Amino acid sequence: MANLTTEGSRKGISSARSKDTLHCLLIPLQGVKILLPNTAVAEVIAYVTPEPVENAPDWLLGNIIWRDEKVPLLSFELLVGKQERSVQRIAVLNTLNGNPDLPYMALSIQGIPQLRLIQEAGIVVTEMDSKTDAVSASIDFAGESVLIPDLDNLEQELLALNSI
């Protein structure tokens, strides 16, 4: 009977840990890193030159075709006021609201995303002086300063352009 109780307790501890752990991707950009839930990233692909969009803000690099879908390609660096942008790969992201007009958006990224298991206790929110709604939070994660994009806001910004 003691063994059953001990094993049951272990399962309970394991379940509690998995509830507090989030699978994320640490994505390198030019001069900054972002952290996204693994489920937000549909695929990472090689960089392709986007088709320009007329009268678009500088952060909207254009549209790419991915799996027969037209997907807007953004430069997160330009959104947060950096002068340089990433050009090595593209992370195609699932949008959050299930809008059939914008099921995906994409970010130009610098390198290969790295899988990270994040525990809520290991995240420290830091002060931000960003002048953009593109950032949900700035955190200190494992000694690194990392930005968490506000995907909902990015989606709304894209939908407001009406030109994508």
Residue share in helix: 10-25%
CATH topology: OB fold (Dihydrolipoamide Acetyltransferase, E2P)
> What is the alpha-carbon Rg in Å?
18 Å
Tell me the overall shape: globular
CATH homologous superfamily classification: CheA-289, Domain 4
The biggest beta sheet, please?
5 strands, mixed
Strand line-up of the largest beta sheet = 3-6-7-5-4
Q: Can you tell me the CATH architecture? A: Beta Barrel
Strand content: 35-45%
Tally of individual domains: 1
Mean pLDDT: 85
Alpha carbon gap, first and last residue: 63 Å
Count every helix, treating DSSP H or I runs of 4 or more residues as helices.
3
In total, how many beta strands? 11
Class derived from helix and strand content: alpha+beta
Give the uncertain stretches in residue-range form.
1-16
Layout: helices, strands, pairs:
Elements: H1 2-20, E1 21-28, E2 33-37, E3 41-46, E4 60-66, E5 69-74, H2 76-79, E6 89-94, E7 104-109, E8 114-119, E9 123-125, E10 135-141, E11 144-149, H3 151-161
Parallel strand pairs: 5-7
Antiparallel strand pairs: 1-2, 1-8, 3-6, 4-5, 6-7, 9-10, 10-11
